[in-house]
Structures are given as structure tokens and as C-alpha cells.
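A quick word before the example. In earlier lectures we treated sequence and structure as two separate objects. From today on, think of them as two lines of the same record. Here is Branched-chain amino acid ABC transporter permease written that way.
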Amino acid sequence: MMFKLGALLMHPASKYVLLAVALLFPALASNEYQVYVMATAFVWAIAVYGFNVITGFCGQLNLAHGGFFAIGAYTVGLLTSDAGWNFWPAFIAALFMTAILGFLVGAVSLRLKEHYFAIFTLCVGFIIYLLLDKWEELTHGAVGVRNIAAPDGFGLVNFRETMPVYYLVLFFLVFIIWFTGRIQKSLVGRTFIAIRNGDELAESLGINLMKTKILAFVISTTYAGLAGALYAGMIRFVGPEDGNILLTFNMIMYMLVGGIGTLFGPLIGTVGIVWLTQSLQFLEEYRMIIFGPLLVLLVIFFPLGVCGSFLTWMHRKAQALGLGPKKAKSESKVTTSDQEAKNNA
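And the structure line, produced from the sequence above:
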């Protein structure tokens, strides 16, 4: 029964069911706040998809990912609040800014390997946080950037309201999932996975390690910048804490819970943890007493994440069902041959 249910969930049409549920969620929600929480979860999911590209696909642990999220948010905030730009030109500028900085940081940091790379990017993330907090002439320091412009609407659509913003964020999330799926199935995605499996193996296949790693790094930082830009337009305020290194570790948690290297893991992990956190808000500072053990149990019983463990279970189940008929067929052949021998005797 569970296998049939799993097969149903893994059916190609299931993604359309998920999309239909997402489209209908505002009508099913009890209040506007729930719609706002879901929109925020979608924004974080976009950033986690970027983290999944560089870490889940390519195997490079970038601990500065939250910093690039903040760069995207601050680019939109400063250009709209201080320079008077409209949202969408500032949004495009945020994508270019995070892509360019991602290229520069990647060109330097990706010369290092494994934990050296992780430590270097951790330092980069902390430097970004310090710049946001201390460079008052540019970033306004601890005060942050206020009065950020909302996305420009059209016709009767006003992105200052929660419902239109929800569908705007959902549109970008669907695009990111589709684009990530295309990457995963493409030759580029296979080169990412080859590098994750081992640099020596990838080099033996003729893959340019540096070029491929930088490409993955730039894609991931652009995802983070896109999420940060949407976050700034939705919240309309950004501060130094939006670049805190703790946000990167939150993204790691979302990705690990959902399933590292899977297509829908970042979405399931992010939405699940965000709503679990919201449901425990009534416990205030004591909520971690319940939240912490739940995460520990999840890691123990689902070490590959929800999606990763489920896919592994499905694969093993399919193998078991595939071997069963063959075994039965071979046993029937042996029985038939024995019977024929007895008849001949």
C-alpha cells in the first residue's frame, strides 16, 4: 500500500498536483497571515535551491550563501530607497550584482578544496555581514534600509498587497524549480555531479574543474540574489541581520531535511520547517525544546532527508519487486525440468 502511495507521489503528474495546491492555497488559508508565511517560505526555498546547486549537485559547501542573499536584498533596497529606482530595474541589477560578485568570489575561493573552501567562504560571509553592519555611509549600518519600493504592478494588480505578492513569488519559485530540473538533466548537471563524486574522476573525463565550479557558484549566487531581491520587495525593509551567517546554517538545515541533491527536497524542507516553526510560536523561547529533538529524530531516521530517503526506499522496493518475478521464473524452470526428468525416467 505504501509502495503504491509512493509511486503515486513520484508520478510525473504529481508536480501538477503540487502546483494546483499552491495556486489554491490562498483560498484555503484561514487568514492573510498564513498566505504571507507561505510566500516567505517560497522566498527562502528559492535561496535554498541555489544552495542545492553548489552543494547538492556540485559538492562545494558555500557558507557565504546567506551573504549573497543579503547582497541581492540590499541592492534592491539601496537602489529604490536612496537612488529612486523602480523595483524591476533594481531587481535586474541585483541579479547582475550577485552574479558578478559570485564570479569574483568563486574564482578565488574555488582554488581551495573541501573544508578549506568552506572555511574561506565562511570568512567571506562574515565579511559581508560586517560591511552591512559597519559601512553606515552606504548601507545605513544597524538602522538598515527602509521604505524599499514594492514591485511595480500592472492594471488592477497591486504588489503592495499580500495576495499578488504571493503569486509573484510562486511564479519565480516554479521557474526556479523548472530551471533547476533542466540543469539536473542536462550535460552541465552531469558534470556538476561528476565533480561531486570526485575531482580526479571528473578530470579523467575531461571536465574543466575550475570553469564548471565557477559556473555552479555563479548560478547559486544568482538564485540567492533573486530570493533576496524578492524578499526586500515583499518585506520592504532590510538590515544587517539579513546577512547573518546563521541564515546560511538555516538554509543548510532546510536542504538537509528535504534531501540534499534532490529536485523537490529544498521545497519540502523549507516549507516544512517554516511551518513547523510557526506552529511552535506559542511556546516562545521554549519551542526549541521540542523543535531540536524533532530535528535530531529526523536526521537519525531520515539521514538522506525526506525526499532522499523516500527515493532510496522507492529504488530498493522497485529492485525487490523486479527480482521477485525473475526468481520465481527461474524456480519454475527448475521445477519443470525436474518433472520432465522424472517422466523420462
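Notice the following. DSSP finds 15 helices and no strands in the chain. We will return to this example when we discuss secondary structure assignment.
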